[in-house]
Design a protein that fits this description.
It is built from ten helices and 16 strands. The chain is of the alpha/beta class. The longest helix is centred in the first third of the chain and has 14 residues.
Length: about 375
């Protein structure tokens, strides 16, 4: 049974979880505490392919105090330790190997492959307590869990705009609205996602490469799968079709339905792994379709200190006709905090507000019910 001290330590695990980036995997924090209350190690998950939080904490203590007896120690985890082998080995395996005697965790793992870790640990004699600050721990990954239920990748949206929400001037010029620091931050995100998506109109007009680059301008070793959504055929001489050092990996999703596009992506393997995290960079009608269907799990909004007054908006019509029906978002403390200053720009990191109103067909006139699709391509 957990007490108030256990809850305090679990809050430290929650705080650690928020240090990681959102994406293919859930945010998880872990705190290892000795019997006398000394904090031995803290870990958090740093994104797909990196050590899980539990394993990171146990690796730290093994490095600083090799051979330490952990049979009287307690490991606090914000999420149930996993029992499956993905890009990393099972956390249950690491806990048992380290000899940890007691494990407390907050939220149950909602995925069928990874859940059941508590049962595995109990079967091996570990004292396991579930549900410590369960609701607080569940909220950390509520959107990730929803993506799992819907069988789709986690969706991050990139908005680079002027103060009045424009992505280009009236004459179409757009390079560059945001600063070099903002663009480098975007490439950091590109370097860790599985796929990057634009509409076929954006692909035709901008002819983008959709690559991930390092600060010196060279290509990152990992390149996301480049995706074009829409039925408009891609030009034969488009950059995405050309053979280049970053590879031939691109796909066209011939649909205007955002959920269908995501579910198709979830069935694709890229670099040996399924697509579990997609970055959507435009255009405005594609973004509108995803916002309208509440499929945006995370936003990085880069605001440049300039006013254009005219020109295309970053997001098109999402069917909202009254303020009470607006999509609402909250500051996201994950991955370094909700607000960053990038040269002269301000980057705001957002997630859907938990109590956000989700419009249904009753919010729109009969002839406008349903989500607007991207018809630009």
């Amino acid at each position: 049974m957990a007490d108030q001290l256990d809850e305090t330590r679990m809050r430290a695990a929650v705080e650690a979880a928020y240090r990681g980036p959102r994406g293919a995997n859930p945010l998880v924090g872990a705190v290892l505490v000795a019997a006398d209350g000394t904090v031995l190690a803290v870990g958090h998950h740093r994104g797909a392919g990196n050590l899980h939080a539990e394993r990171e904490a146990l690796t730290r203590i093994a490095r600083t105090s090799p051979g330490m007896d952990l049979s009287d120690a307690t490991l606090y985890c914000s999420l149930e330790p996993c029992r499956h082998h993905g890009r990393q080995p099972p956390c249950t395996e690491a806990i048992l190997s380290a000899g940890v005697g007691r494990v407390l965790y907050g939220a149950d793992d909602p995925t069928p492959d990874a859940s059941g870790g508590a049962t595995v640990l109990r079967a091996e004699g570990v004292d396991v307590v579930a549900g410590v600050l369960a609701e607080e721990c569940r909220r950390i990954n509520q959107r990730w869990a929803r993506a799992q239920r819907e069988g789709r990748p986690f969706v991050t949206v990139h908005l680079a705009q002027s103060l009045d929400g424009r992505i280009a001037a009236a004459d179409g010029t757009s390079q560059w609205i945001t600063s070099a620091a903002s663009r480098e931050h975007t490439h950091r995100i590109r370097r860790r996602i599985d796929a990057i998506l634009v509409g076929s109109n954006t692909a035709a007009v901008d002819d983008p490469r959709l690559t991930a680059r390092l600060p010196d301008g060279t290509l990152s070793e990992h390149q996301p799968l480049r995706c074009v959504m829409g039925r408009r055929p891609l030009s034969e001489d488009a950059r995405l079709r050309r053979g280049r050092p970053e590879g031939e990996g691109w796909v066209q999703l011939r649909t205007h339905d955002p959920l269908e596009a995501l579910q198709r992506l979830g069935e694709i393997q890229h670099e040996g792994h399924p697509v579990r995290h997609v970055l959507i960079e435009g255009g405005s009608r594609v973004l509108a379709a995803y916002f309208a269907q509440d499929l945006v799990d995370e936003i990085f909004a880069y605001q440049a200190p300039l006013i254009l007054g005219a020109g295309p908006s970053s997001v098109g019509d999402i069917g909202v006709t009254t303020l009470s029906a607006a999509r609402r978002y909250a500051q996201d403390p994950a991955e370094g905090g909700a607000v960053r200053i990038l040269d002269d720009d301000v980057c705001v990191h957002l997630q859907p507000a938990e109590d956000a109103h989700v419009p249904d067909s009753s919010d729109a006139p009969a002839d406008q019910a349903g989500a607007p699709a991207d018809r630009s391509s």
